Amino acid sequence: MAKLANHQSVLIEREWGVFPIGENGIHQNEAEAFFKAGERAARELRLPQGAVLNRVVGGLKAGQVCGVLSYKGRSLEILPKINSTESESRLALVRMLSVANDLRVSDGELAQLQTQRRDLLELLIALFARRLTKAIKGGIQRRYKGQEDDLPFVRGAINIGQQLTKRPVAPTKLFCEFDELSENTPMNRLLKAATLRLRGISWSSATQRNLQIILDVFRDVGRSQNPLAEPIKNDRSATAFSNLVPLARLFLRGDWQNTTSGNTTGTALLFPMNDLFERYVARRAQQTLGRGIVHKQHFQHHALSNKLFRMIPDIVIDYTDEPVIIDTKWKQLDPTDTQRLGVAQPDIYQMLAYGHSYATDGAMPRLVLLYPHHAALGKSEGVLRQWSVTGSEIPLTIATVDITKRRSPEQWRDLFEQIAPAPSVAIS
To answer: pLDDT tens for residues 100-157?
Structure first.
């Protein structure tokens, strides 16, 4: 059932939940605007029509996309369908976004931001404003920029060629070339663009004030025509702002998945959970096992010998002669199905194709279907079933990972050792 947030402008629901139309819900005219905004957002995300919102009797049904849709001061927030409180679900979503997009959000930062009621969008805006306010206290980035000017005195070096050309026109001026410290750097233009965008989106008066103070500091920074194309260099002058650049790009990417269409104006910050879950697990695997052996969207093999129908598993851990092929599935396993756990037959066929393609040149692949864990499964995360492919020794593991759980690097390593052990510790 949908739930109104304390500030009465956000209606909250989980994946597949229904936002009611009418009393204690959204008005009919708002429902139409939100539905159109959801359609536009789905197109921006290259998802099927109805992937964000669908019309049902008495309401709008959320799909398998999480985030926020906003329209004229009202917002619909869709949270992951996991066994946790509303706040825990939101923080789990932010943690996944942080890992997948290299935002480096600490649990301490999240705890500070939970002192006030915030939806996902406001939480991320407040995080950006807090980080940038702290960073600019040490001064904003400045770099030397080459300048040329006619001056009454020597500054830098005299351009002899230009001086001889211009002397008859301005005999008392010297044409000089010099370096001058400038605040108009690519990184500052990116941060200013994000701040300008967020100031027009945030409903929090406190956050808006913070963003305006930031803009006052950036008053001498130019406006970028294409902030996402700004050539950001990672040098010492950018160190204090390094954890802001990915966040700014997240806000600006795709123009916020702008949902403006005709008379309908809105914005959306939405994340397809299938893709986000895959990126989250892949990034954790790379952090734990190393980028050298963990590959995302691997495309080394084809289904046919004439190199047609390329195979693209989500994650491949490239252990020598024993690659582990992991396919992530943002679906809830069914513990009442004691034999199959609700694993879909097409998913098994897909894994069989991967196993056959990777079983070349003496390699013995191992297959893993990885799902989000939930309490109804009745046991801790990790391996739930270990099957084998008919007519071969290729193992197929059904496993889960609890996205609400906070882990140390050592705990992540233990989990991957259980799900996809290295050959030296593999169970025969």
So the answer is: 998 888 877 777 766 556 788 888 999 999 999 999 998 888 887 777 777 778 776 7
What gap in Å lies between CA 65 and CA 49, rounded to an integer? 12
Give yes or no for a contact between 148 and 159, defined as CB atoms under 8 angstroms apart.
Answer: yes
Task: Report the pLDDT value the prediction gives residue 258, as an integer from 0 to 100.
Answer: 52
Q: How many other CB atoms sit within 10 Å of the CB of residue 210?
A: 22
SS3 10: strand
Nearest residue to 86 via CA among 6, 20, 24: 6
The length of the chain is: 428
Write the pLDDT tens digit of every residue in 217-239.
999 999 999 999 999 888 887 88
For 118, counting Cβ atoms within 10 Å of its Cβ (0-12 exposed, 13-18 middle, 19+ buried), the class is: buried
- Both tokens of 310, joined, read 């390329």
Contact (CB, 8 A) for 367 and 323: no
Can you spell out the DSSP letters for 43-85? HHTT--TTSSEEEETTEEEE-SEEEEEEETTEEEEEE--SSS-
Count of Cβ atoms closer than 10 Å to residue 240 Cβ: 18
- Residue 90 identity (one-letter amino acid): R
The pLDDT of residue 255 is 41
Question: How many C-beta atoms surround the C-beta of residue 81 within 10 A?
Answer: 20
Model confidence over 306-337: pLDDT tens digits?
766 777 888 999 998 889 999 999 999 999 99
Residues of the chain with pLDDT under 50: 4-8, 255-257, 259-264, 427-428
Measure the CA angle with vertex 276, ends 193 and 267; round to 5°: 40
Return the pLDDT at 169. 62
Other beta carbons within 10 Å of 321: 10
User: In sequence order, what DSSP letters do the residues of 279-338 get, joined into one string?
Assistant: HHHHHHHHHHH-TTTEEES----BSSTTS-SB---SEEE--TT--EEEEE--S---TT-T
Residue 113 CB neighbour total at 10 angstroms: 18
